[in-house]
């Protein structure tokens, strides 16, 4: 019965095996796994194409692991045999699965047999300790509530229900603290519906509540390295699984040739030394072989003596992943993109459907939409208030969708689900809002939540990090973000005489128009649409890889700016267009952006853990560039080495060799590809263009300080709202931010 709605809409669906049956996991708890259970996950893109994941906890039973394998096979059949299948094991998940959960994966003790259920409640009777590991792929593992599990090199979360403490060891670095705070915020927003208070705790400064929960503090162990990765052997093999699923070697090592794969057979590509193998299903292989593909992979792991943590990917012909194709020196897809006017996408097995070109469809297998959860199509009731003088000032509905960087806003979204009215409060904070407005937005969010009986889900949104669902609330119009200023009457700052808006469509097909901080030709991007307003004219510039939906969104931006717009195509720009931008300059013109066949990949190079090179899972953004590391960006026809200002000498000196070895060892033959080294703060447009709405001023504000400020503002202001404001108080207009904080500090001291 659970398959009836499976794969009907884009996004992520998660089921747990309970009494050998499938039970859905609530969206708010996606990414949280009980170690004694097995799970089935389905990710659907808008193409549609599908990924099926079987997740096995370390303590799940044989019956549960067998049941999830059967359900995965049945779901594959139900979806026509076209999905890519993954076998995932706790602590060794694929980057594909980890990418669905940018706030990290949480492992909880127990399972069905212990009576633990996935239920979203406001129950504050929680007491657990989470050990946070990972700089790129974040994992939070529940451990015993004991000081003996702490170490100086990591972050831990002491979850006491109403209060969530992020404990930072004296040896952990800034980036690890930032990632741990994402887990803490996720617990507050999703597991507690925004009603827990967050606290930052440094080693040696533990408050009484933490000591009471954990007992007298003992000696803290020194930091430990992450798991070491075996790089001694990198040979791969390919085997033919034919007939009665007998396995025979076809080629002993890579690089392989695509002609080795016969359409009548199934094959195993052995990459076991890297803890993953691939099972490729030929389109003409008999049905029994195709259905037995996953079990054949599991048997192959046993026969080879590989770790039972080895990942397995089952790939039907036509749905091969980038990782699989890189082992072939001559791989060519059946119907590759023919240019900016046409694109092809995989539908059912061995069938390629031609569809109108749409940039979002090219990116539709990304994980960002799944992370944020599209609760509906955005057609519910929307109410928006601007934070003004400590109060909620209603925004005129005609201005819905416009957000100014100098403001904070509260967006109340109401929709019906299962016959009941549900609510979400989005608190949007501009990057140039004042501390008083930031504080007031926290207070007013709590007050609005309380007025509705504590039922809404609260989501804090920082300018530039808008989730797709928020972007979809404006009746088909784009979300327009102004770089600064305010929408309050009489309070607007003078806008620049020349303005440039960058329009891009998200993976959920919602569009966002972001005002670029400085109108310059270097901000253009061949994959997108831009609206340029100068004192003399308005232009709509279409890059060669832009979509029709992005052009439609540009009309709304022009309607707001006023005037009649001239349409300009890339490479056919008139002189007055370049003149308005201050002259011609280099910008992002990568052919890969116009014709995305291979998605870009971002890696971190760090000697701070045992894993020297680690890929950033899922969709990456500018905040994934760790300032204390060296990063490698692979855009297929370009390789970039990005050097963070705080990277140490070992990383700076060793990363170029890693990048060269990475390119030279690629079986698809990219040896000799130029490698460009750039430094933080001096990024050229050819690099910055891979990150939407690149902000050159991002690092002027410490991201950790801003996150810590978010924790402090929302936690302390929630406390203040409860203890200092009676029902007669209507605004914070009489209280400055410093006064509120003083009250809180005094009360804590008292």
Spatial arrangement of strands, main beta sheet? 2-1-4-5-6-17-16-15-13-14
Please indicate the percent range of residues in DSSP E strands (runs of 2 or more). Answer: 25-35%
* Intertermini distance: 57 Å
Secondary-structure content class: alpha/beta
Low-confidence stretches: 226-236, 335-373, 592-597, 714-735, 745-750
Helix amount, in percent? 10-25%
The coarse overall form would be: globular
Q: How many strand segments?
A: 36
Number of helices: 18
Q: What profile does the largest beta sheet have?
A: 10 strands, mixed
Task: Offer a quick outline of the entry.
With 750 residues, this protein is an alpha/beta fold.
Question: What characteristics describe this protein?
Answer:
Villin/Gelsolin; alpha/beta; ADF-H/Gelsolin-like_dom_sf; disordered C terminus; seven-stranded mixed beta sheet; 18 helices; actin capping; actin-binding; ten-stranded mixed beta sheet; 750 residues; single chain
């Amino acid at each position: 019965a659970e398959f009836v709605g499976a794969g009907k809409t884009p996004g992520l669906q998660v089921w747990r095996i309970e009494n050998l049956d499938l039970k859905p996991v609530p969206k708010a708890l996606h990414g949280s796994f009980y170690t004694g259970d097995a799970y089935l996950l389905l990710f659907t893109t808008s193409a549609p194409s599908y990924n099926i994941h079987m997740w096995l906890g370390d303590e799940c039973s044989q019956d549960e692991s067998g049941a999830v394998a059967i359900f995965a096979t049945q779901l594959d059949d139900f979806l026509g045999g076209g999905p890519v299948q993954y076998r995932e094991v706790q602590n060794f998940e694929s980057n594909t699965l980890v990418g669905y959960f940018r706030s990290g994966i949480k492992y909880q003790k127990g399972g069905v047999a212990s009576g633990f259920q996935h239920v979203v409640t406001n129950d504050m009777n929680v007491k657990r300790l989470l050990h946070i590991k990972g700089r790129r792929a974040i994992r939070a593992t529940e451990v015993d509530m004991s000081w003996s599990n702490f170490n100086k090199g990591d972050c831990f979360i002491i979850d006491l229900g109403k209060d969530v403490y992020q404990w930072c060891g004296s040896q952990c670095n800034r980036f690890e603290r930032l990632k741990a705070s994402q887990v803490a915020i996720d617990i507050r927003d999703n597991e507690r519906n925004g009603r827990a208070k967050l606290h930052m705790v440094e080693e040696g400064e533990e408050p009484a509540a933490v000591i009471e929960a954990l007992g007298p503090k003992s000696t803290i162990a020194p930091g430990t390295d992450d798991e070491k990765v075996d790089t001694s052997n990198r040979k791969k093999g390919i085997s033919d699984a034919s007939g009665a699923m007998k396995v025979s070697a076809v080629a002993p090592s890579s690089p392989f040739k695509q002609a080795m794969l016969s359409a009548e057979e199934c094959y195993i590509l052995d990459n076991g030394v890297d803890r993953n193998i691939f099972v490729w299903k030929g389109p003409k292989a008999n049905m029994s072989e195709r259905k037995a593909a996953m079990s054949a992979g599991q048997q192959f792991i046993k026969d080879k003596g590989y770790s039972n943590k080895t990942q397995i990917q089952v790939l039907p012909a036509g749905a091969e992943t980038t990782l699989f194709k890189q082992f072939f020196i001559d791989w060519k897809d059946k119907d590759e993109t023919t240019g900016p006017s046409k694109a092809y996408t995989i539908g059912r097995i061995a069938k390629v459907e031609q569809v109108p070109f749409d940039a979002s469809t090219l990116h539709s297998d990304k994980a960002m939409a799944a992370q944020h959860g599209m609760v509906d199509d955005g057609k519910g009731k929307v109410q928006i208030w601007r934070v003004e003088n400590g109060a909620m000032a209603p925004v005129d509905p005609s201005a819905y969708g416009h957000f100014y960087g100098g403001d904070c806003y509260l967006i109340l979204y109401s929709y019906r689900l299962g016959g009941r009215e549900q609510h979400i409060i989005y608190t949007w904070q501009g990057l140039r809002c004042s501390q008083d407005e930031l504080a007031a937005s926290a207070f007013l969010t709590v007050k609005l939540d309380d007025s509705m009986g504590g039922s809404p889900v609260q989501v804090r949104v920082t300018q530039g990090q808008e989730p797709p669902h928020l972007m979809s609330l404006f009746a088909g119009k784009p979300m327009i973000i102004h770089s600064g200023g305010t929408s309050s009457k009489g309070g607007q700052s003078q806008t620049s005489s020349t303005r440039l808006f960058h329009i891009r469509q998200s993976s959920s097909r919602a569009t966002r128009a972001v005002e670029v901080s400085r109108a310059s030709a270097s901000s253009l991007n061949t994959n997108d649409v831009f609206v340029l307003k100068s004192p003399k004219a308005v232009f709509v510039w279409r890059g060669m890889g832009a979509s029709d939906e992005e052009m439609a969104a540009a009309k709304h931006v022009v309607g707001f700016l006023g005037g009649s717009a001239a349409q300009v195509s890339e490479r056919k720009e008139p002189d007055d267009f370049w003149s308005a931008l201050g002259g011609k300059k280099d910008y992002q013109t990568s052919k890969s952006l116009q014709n995305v066949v291979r998605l870009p990949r971002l890696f971190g190079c760090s000697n701070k853990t045992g894993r020297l090179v680690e890929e950033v899972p899922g969709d990456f953004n500018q905040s994934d560039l760790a300032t204390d590391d060296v990063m490698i960006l692979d855009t297929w026809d370009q390789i970039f080495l990005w050097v963070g200002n705080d990277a140490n000498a070992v990383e700076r000196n060793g990363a170029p060799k890693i990048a060269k070895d990475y390119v030279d060892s690629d079986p698809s033959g990219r040896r000799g590809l130029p490698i460009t080294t750039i430094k933080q703060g001096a990024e050229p447009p050819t690099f910055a263009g891979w990150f939407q709405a690149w902000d050159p001023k991002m690092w002027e504000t410490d991201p950790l300080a801003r996150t810590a400020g978010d924790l402090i503002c929302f936690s302390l202001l929630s406390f203040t709202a409860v203890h200092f404001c009676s029902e007669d108080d209507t605004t914070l207009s009489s209280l400055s931010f410093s006064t509120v904080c003083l009250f809180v500090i005094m009360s804590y001291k008292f």
